[in-house]
Specification:
The chain has one domain: YhbY-like (Translation Initiation Factor IF3), CATH 3.30.110. The longest helix is centred in the middle third of the chain and has 14 residues. It is an alpha+beta fold and 101 residues long. Helix content is 43%, strand content 20%. Helix 2 links the parallel strand 1 and strand 2.
Length: 101
């Protein structure tokens, strides 16, 4: 569970990021979850964008993907949302995100 201070810090880090995944009109598919599972160990923080043609609610999609991937929803703004999951792989390399207490 992220504190408000940690969430604000992660929002700040996510600001310049481009979306790594775009969800189309089909909505969240099993392939979408598979892509997120592949991306999170190498990125920790990913931004996802949803097309206007997608009828699914971005907040619901973010919650579902986060729950399935074991991640946290950092923010949902418009049709974009940010997910975070700690990566032991990046921490061992010294490249992980260090969260404030």
């Amino acid at each position: 569970m992220l504190t408000s201070k940690q969430r604000a810090y992660l929002r700040k880090l996510a600001q310049p990021l481009q979306p790594l995944l775009i969800i189309g009109k089909e909505g969240v598919l099993p392939e979408t979850l598979q892509h997120i599972e592949e991306m999170l160990p190498g990125h920790e923080l990913i931004k996802v964008s949803m097309l206007k043609t997608c009828e699914e609610d971005p907040k619901d999609a973010a919650r579902r993907l986060a729950a399935a991937a074991g991640a946290e929803v950092v923010s949902v703004v418009g049709r974009r949302f940010v997910l975070y999951r700690y990566s032991r792989k990046l921490a061992e390399k010294g490249k992980g995100i260090i969260l404030p207490r």
